[in-house]
Prior knowledge:
Blueprint: H1 10-21, E1 25-28, H2 32-45, E2 47-54, E3 64-74, E4 77-83, H3 89-104, E5 109-112, H4 115-126, E6 135-137, H5 138-145, E7 150-154, E8 162-166, H6 171-179, H7 189-209, H8 213-232, E9 234-235, H9 238-265, H10 287-296, H11 306-314, H12 318-341, E10 349-350, E11 353-355, E12 365-367, H13 381-385, E13 394-401, H14 404-413, H15 416-423, H16 428-437, H17 446-459, H18 465-476, H19 482-495, H20 497-508, E14 514-520, E15 524-534, E16 540-543, E17 545-546, E18 549-550, H21 554-580, E19 587-592, E20 595-601, H22 605-624, E21 631-636
Amino acid sequence: MRSPENYSDSSQLLVDMIDRLEPQSITMVQSLPEWESILGEIEMAGFFGLNLTATGPDPLSYDIQRISLAVPNAPSSSTVYTVDIADRPELKEGIIGDLAGLLENGRIKKTLHDSKFVLSFIRARAGRKLNFCSVFDIMLASQICWSGYYYLTPSGNPKNPWTKRLVDHSLASLAERHLGIILDEEGCPAQGAAALLPLHDILAELLAKNDLQRVADLEFRAAIALVEMEISGIGLDSSGARELIDQEEDEIIDQIWRMQYEAERKGFVTVSFDGKRLCYYLNPDRQEDVMAFLAKRGYRPANTKAEVLKSLAAAGCSFAEALMRYRHLSYNLLFLNKWLEKVHPLDGRVHPQYFQIPSSTGRISSRHPNAQQIPRRGDDAPAIRRLFRPAAGKRYVKADLSNIELRIMARISGDEAMQEAFMNSVDLHRLTASRISGTPFEEVTDSQRQAAKAMNFLLIYGGSAKSLQWRILSDYGEFICLDEAEERLEKFFCSYPGVREWQKMQLSQMSYTMQHHFHNCVRGFFSLPLTATRTILGRRRIWPRFGAGITASKFQMYNTPCQGTGADLIKLVMAEVYEKLSDEEARIIGSIHDEIILEVPEDRAEEYASRLKEIMERIGSQMLYPVPVKAEAKVMRTLAE
């Protein structure tokens, strides 16, 4: 099989790719001897494409329907083999075992689209931990190469004539964009398999041109950890959740009547925009009602966001306090009901979906339900977290990275004061409080430290004096004038001058461009001058330039390298945890921002906690050298401990 470098130019590459998309033959596999013959061809070729269709999206409830394999048999052509497993149950067990073996064979390269989907079905059918390797995912590769890019298309709206359209990374879109081919995956899934090999060549070359191979290798390794988290799921005390729902429903009714009583006492009557009376009750979910009642009370807030309500409550507005509690209870009820709806009938556990590169920073997200919305702080958080319990005879091991965003900032900014503090295990929040207030380090109070903590996390991402003023008021109920906020901001950057210089450098990059490489079926490989940021590992976020304008914001220029580096770090940890710690007894079951959660045998929980802590600190310290990384790990009976 020829590599893209052997082609004389991109147009010839495209011709050969399209030729290969028309397979010389599509062979339906009817017997085990035929299947074994295909395995021999794959062994000789050392490379194949795998496409899989299923009867439904859930690997625990649905089954594999069809497997299509594309095997190169000449420099620019391939043979596609298709097995309808649903129609040949006698072949199913042997084929699944062989596929698992192929995916674990490091000598054979595999190309897939959406490897998490494919691997999850094979993992569920195999029923054991699988050590997948040498996997190339064209969907992940495309997401990495186009991270942050978008198109502007006419909207038909005179006020906003353009609408943002994100790049599509589906197999059909990749084939159309790069090969000029319209796939009929539903009518002929074998076409999708045939497209994998030419798309691999193009996207591998695109990764190389943009120096993104290290990022791609990381994402390919991390995919199987996400598969394991989805397959394993997390235990939920359903009866306890229903009891908590009943309690919070009673309380939310009390809060509603509390607000209604106050509204009635003040003579409030809700009205519509045209002045007609709607009803006699204040609707706490209706913005117009809330704003009108606050105005009647003499308050004129610009909106009813949480920070605004906090400041009103601090000023003595009992209605704002009740409204915040009502919203919080409403959120809790929505959260609990969503999780109860997703309890799986097969094992009684909840299996959240994880998305590997949903954003331009590379951070993992979760949905159906969202595991990253499990509350960590607040008065109600312990009661909710207590509902998440391991299986009998097991314990949770949870580990998180200490002050990781500030450690990343110390590394990428090169600020000597920050780096020295971390290398000497000095409490950076207490140090900041000491430098801002002039209080000796040993005499800094807890409240001063908390305020400095908010300042540290706000200002490293470009927070203004105005936002600092609001943060201190909403979080701590302390009002400071704008001049004092500006003075604190200036003292912060005098304390950490490297952070200020790094922020200036990031802003200057908005005026400069770098060449970023693309590919499509019309132009072949080409490059465009774009604004971009990079993580320590090399992950890029790019911004398209329309005319002479740059669409990046100051916040994005500061935030993306930090958040992206954090995403790279936690994925490196996840990959190694899966490879080194995960087995039939101990499983990685969740990743929530900078936390990793394992479910392990009770009698070995302390051992796993120690090993997890060592992995996180070692990988983090290697990436952020010379800044050391610290992790905290503990054994828990529930997530509330």
